[in-house]
Amino acid sequence: MKYRYQNPAAVYLGLDELRKRGLTPRGLLFIALDPRGETHIAVPDDLDAVTMLKVGDKLSLEPPWEGRYFHFDAIHRLPGDTLLWLGDRRLSDAGSAQEVAGAVAEWMGGCSAKSLFLGCTPHQPGTWWCQTDRTIVTALHARGFADAVVTNMGLLARRIGEPALYHLSWQQLAQRGALEGWTPMFESPLGNILMVERRVMNYRLALTCERGLVEIDISGAPDEVATTATVETESGYGVVGRVDGGGFAVTRGTVQAWGLDNVRPAVLLGAPNESLAQLAGALAQSPLDDD
Q1: pLDDT tens digit sequence for 83-135
Q2: CA distances from 243 to 141, 267, 270 (A)
Q3: Helices vs strands, H then E, count in the chain
Q4: I need a labelling partner for 283 at 20 to 30 A (CA). Which of 109, 143, 225, 237 fits?
Q5: Maximum CA extent, the chain
Q6: 122 with 130: CB under 8 angstroms?
Q7: Nearest residue to 129 (alpha-carbon basis) of 95, 165, 179
Q8: Domain boundaries in the chain?
């Protein structure tokens, strides 16, 4: 089902009405803005089936709209009443992204949810942070930081055109904001990092790089980061996420200096509990090779 809302207040009221019918953050599939600043939201036709939906399932869906729509990738409620959202860099052009992210985050709070992950869509990545939905917004991508991931020790992000993964502690974020205090935590052995998996699972995080995929264990981070798998693959494959106890959500796109362009909806590959190292065999026969 698709819904359109003319302003951020209507977004909150609309989501609140859908919650009464069974919608939870898990059931939000896509959120996008059009050039007029209006908000478009897609949810499953059967809201009773929302509890069975997993993040990996969302990543494999096709967006329901065609044309100029600027998609959100994720929205996070952070410590200290701060807000982080990721998505199409053109979201700022629509003029209402901050207020919409704030409205969705407020609704998430009523559901006791801290993070919302949405479908996989092609765009140049943008990352924004603010202290509340009414304060000045910080565009992290203005300093080259993209694909920010929330962890228990702070934020992780890649920097465009670099092989390093950076870390920003919660203390640094509270004291200095989102542009200062980033420190390199890990360097990819396979070239510049093009994409970061959207969330940490069991302390594991997959990095999509110029010459393949790298998985790291961040249980000892930021002081110690261990490489658990390195898979050299044909350029353009990317791990967006994974299903707990299941396979990996793998997309494919065109390598650009800033990341992967024209990414496809992800395909779930690999057997349950399969490691990233074992994913290479599945990639060899991947349906992502088919046009």
Answers
A1: 999 999 999 998 899 999 999 999 999 999 999 999 999 999 999 999 876 67
A2: 28, 11, 10
A3: 5, 21
A4: 225
A5: 49
A6: no
A7: 179
A8: 1-143
